[in-house]
Automatic annotation (TrEMBL):
One cellular-component annotation, GO: cytosol
Family classification: Belongs to the D-isomer specific 2-hydroxyacid dehydrogenase family.
InterPro entries attached to this UniProt entry: D-isomer_2-hydroxyacid_DH, D-isomer_2_OHA_DH_cat_dom, D-isomer_DH_CS, D-isomer_DH_CS1, D-isomer_DH_NAD-bd, NAD(P)-bd_dom_sf
Annotated CDD domains: Mand_dh_like
Originating organism: Rhodofomes roseus
Protein's UniProt name: D-isomer specific 2-hydroxyacid dehydrogenase
Pfam families: 2-Hacid_dh (PF00389), 2-Hacid_dh_C (PF02826)
D-isomer specific 2-hydroxyacid dehydrogenase catalytic domain boundaries: 38-294
Domain D-isomer specific 2-hydroxyacid dehydrogenase NAD-binding: 93-269
UniProt GO MF annotations: glyoxylate reductase (NADPH) activity; hydroxypyruvate reductase [NAD(P)H] activity; NAD binding
Coiled coil (residue ranges): none
Keywords: Oxidoreductase
Superkingdom of the source species: Eukaryota
Length: 304
């Protein structure tokens, strides 16, 4: 955290450098601004310095080449669970705003107007509508619980059924994915970003949603084919979107800013003091357990 740039970080890992003797490290996504991604160059330097554990503070660890870490015998932990409430409520806010057209209404009010841009025919209650969760892990499940209270109908798609899913969450496997999409009023994206999920929500998937459906994304921007999503907003196939994440953060495609039916947030998913505290404690506990017991408990699935 005290390295101003990548060169300083790499120099610090060399023999006699300021990080000599480090065996485990705590990592936060904000370090990317100065040090860059944890790619092969960084991982080679960490391995040469003798680092054995990266305690990543975050649920998503797509900024770390974890398969290369595995090759180099550097373990990686993340902070599952700690982010669930804050990220699920972010998704919930985006879903309500999208369905009720609240973002457009607020922009009109701030511009000195009142209800001139509001079209009641385009605004919908949540009650009775179907929420499709793409990737029912901790965050998706928390969102499902919140939405179920309205009540919304909850359906989900995972590669395999989640054993923690309550009976009121209907599972749709790969063979029934199209069926699920056709029923969804809202598709909320919760899959991690990996090679296999880049562009997963593509033109074909978007077009299988019913006309007027809403997409919410609190996972990672690259999971959605952004040009395909924009085309669907342009021709009205999508009724609205609620986005907390973008493919090239902190850049936001200016085209998205033009849509009155897009609620946009600057990656606020875990931006609460409660969540940040839980995440820090969880990441540091993993590091402590590695140092005292040889292993942290939140080892990422790739290592299991
Ligand atoms: O985006 C936030 C996280 O991955 O924890």
């Amino acid at each position: 955290m005290d390295s101003p740039d990548r060169a300083d970080f790499l120099a610090g890992l060399k023999p006699g450098g300021k990080y000599e003797g480090v065996v485990g490290l705590y990592r936060h996504n904000v370090s990317t601004d100065r040090i860059g991604l944890f790619d092969k160059e960084i991982i080679d330097a960490l391995a040469a310095a003798g680092v054995k554990w990266i305690a990543h503070n975050g649920a998503g660890y797509d900024q770390i080449d974890v398969l290369y870490c595995k090759e180099k015998d550097i373990w990686v932990s993340n902070t599952p669970g700690a982010v669930d409430d804050a990220t699920a409520t972010t998704g919930f806010y985006l879903m309500i705003s999208a369905l009720r057209c609240f973002s457009r209404a607020e922009r009109t009010l701030r511009a000195g107007g009142w209800k001139s841009t509001h079209k009641p025919g385009e605004a919908h209650d949540l009650t009775g509508r179907t929420l499709a969760v793409l990737g029912l892990g901790g965050i998706g499940l928390r969102l499902a619980e919140l939405a179920h209270a309205f009540p919304m109908r909850i359906v989900y798609h995972n590669r395999r059924p989640n054993p923690d899913a309550p009976a009121w969450c209907e599972y749709f496997g790969a063979d029934r994915l199209d069926e699920m999409l056709a029923q969804a009023d809202v598709l909320s994206v919760h899959v991690p970003l990996k090679d296999s999920t880049v562009g997963m929500v593509d033109e074909t998937m978007i077009r299988k949603l019913k006309r007027g459906a809403v997409i919410v994304n609190t996972a990672r921007g690259k999971v959605i084919d952004e040009p395909a999503m924009i085309r669907a907003l342009e021709d009205g196939h999508l009724g609205a979107v609620g986005l907390d994440v973008f493919p090239d953060e902190p850049q936001v495609n200016p085209r998205l800013l033009d849509f009155p039916n897009a609620t946009l947030l600057p990656h606020m998913g875990t931006e609460t003091c409660d969540s940040q505290k839980k995440m820090e404690i969880r990441a540091l506990s993993n590091l402590r357990d590695f140092l005292t017991k040889g292993k942290g408990f939140d080892i990422i699935p790739e290592f299991k």
